[in-house]
């Protein structure tokens, strides 16, 4: 045991001296080499991104609600130019718009949807090309009042070359220019279509001349974003397609009591008729079939004076309405002695027919070859020209005044 203890102490002493020698060697070497430099590190100023001098302002302010769908959204840049503006709705659809030529502004091409949340992302560059960015979000108002809208077009229906699109509103429109701009037409042959206000609740649309046969037309309604009058908005955003069929234009000569029916440029029939007698003269001018009513009851209420002897209450076949005031082309079974010879009606254009209407009678043949939108031009009547609001009679107004 003692021998082992002595050996252990001797070994431990030798180890300690060796450690001291090693430590002394390390210390001396460090002194000889001198102090070491700290590891190189990047300066904070070297990694700080450049700040763009360009500024971006987005209106309305972030978080805004109850925003009007027109006139409020705009993006502007200062000390630089906009390079990108993207406005999207909840479904990611981008709102059309353009950056101005000088790069300092952006506005939407049309109205926004109501009751919709939008996000705006914009980028701008300063003179050194350094980019600035901005984001904003807002929600458009939910209208408290809407105006009902209707027209005389059915989707994918076919109409005659004289068809006038008549749009009517249940309440008066005061913002007429904006409403007119919210109703646009796309035509397959590039035909331009123009609107004309008939009154505060009706606007009619037509081209300069009769439509060309076969034209494909789509009406684009975008009225939900339009304030039609203070606090009242439109109620329709939709596309409405229709087609123009073959051309049929009938000239009704009151002097000769004969109607020339021309289809696609070729006369296909001559039809005898009786028109309005003195005091009940048929309107002159161009009228358009606005409804194919078939068998219709006609009374003298509002037409003749009570006790005048001119009262009537008739059920007539093959009735085609031309005016709101009650002018028709219809079958006539009670005036065989005057049809083709003189005028004996209360303003309508009567064509030979049977009491119940026969498809083989002249009135039946004319009816079955006609459609809504066909043209009837009345000439040589002693009556005045039909007024623009009476049916689809806008063709009597010169294009320069339309």
TrEMBL record:
Domain L,D-TPase catalytic: 248-379
Listed SUPFAM superfamilies: L,D-transpeptidase catalytic domain-like
One GO cellular component, as annotated: extracellular region
Pfam family, one: YkuD
Signal peptide: 1-21
Chain intervals for the UniProt region annotation (Disordered): 27-49
Gene3D superfamilies recorded: 2.60.40.3710, 2.60.40.3780, L,D-transpeptidase catalytic domain-like
This protein's UniProt keywords: Acyltransferase, Cell shape, Cell wall biogenesis/degradation, Peptidoglycan synthesis, Signal, Transferase
Lineage of the species this protein comes from: Bacteria, Bacillati, Actinomycetota, Actinomycetes, Kitasatosporales
GO MF annotation terms: acyltransferase activity; peptidoglycan L,D-transpeptidase activity
GO BP terms, alphabetized: cell wall organization; peptidoglycan-protein cross-linking; regulation of cell shape
InterPro entries: Big_10, LD-transpeptidase, LD_TPept_cat_dom, Transpep_catalytic_dom
Pathways per UniProt: Cell wall biogenesis; peptidoglycan biosynthesis
Name recorded for this polypeptide: L,D-TPase catalytic domain-containing protein
Catalytic residue positions: 330 (proton donor/acceptor), 348 (nucleophile)
Keyword match Protease: no
